[in-house]
Amino acid sequence: MSIAQTAAAIAVMAVVTFLTRALPFFLFDRGGKPPRVVLYLGKYLPAGVIAMLIVYCLKGVGFQSTGQWLPSLLACAAVVGLHLWKRNNMLSIMGGTIFYMVLVQVVF
User: Fold this and answer.
1) 47-75 burial, b for 16+ CB within 10 Å, e for fewer?
2) How far is the C-alpha of 33 from the C-alpha of 54, rounded, in Å?
């Protein structure tokens, strides 16, 4: 890519990034109530996204030997346990990821 094409690509990405963050403020009045569909999505979409991530993360797990499925199962249990204990998404995700990597790299 030439310098002009690179600059144009960066400019387009900057505008799109700005618009995705600013658009909700333009569409919804600050004092008014958001539309019902937005409230519905805000309530149910996070759980749906988490469910899709779980399916995506576990889709390639094999059951031929214990070393293939046990780290994933233990890491999932750790994520659930951490989340039920602290109710902190970041702690749950980071803790489960670190625990999984320790299991895969050191234990199994």
Assistant:
1) eeeeeeeeeeeeeeeeeeeeeeeebbebb
2) 33
Backbone phi and psi for residue 20, each to the nearest 5 degrees, phi listed first: -65, -25
* DSSP element (H, E) containing 90: helix 89-102
For the purposes of burial, counting CB atoms within 10 Å of the CB of 20, is it exposed (0-12), middle (13-18) or buried (19 or more)?
Answer: exposed
CB neighbourhood size of 98 (10 A)? 12
Whether the predicted model's global pTM rises above the 0.70 cut:
no
Position 78, amino acid: A
Two structure tokens written together for 37: 């569909």
pLDDT band at 47 (very low <50, low <70, confident <90, very high): confident
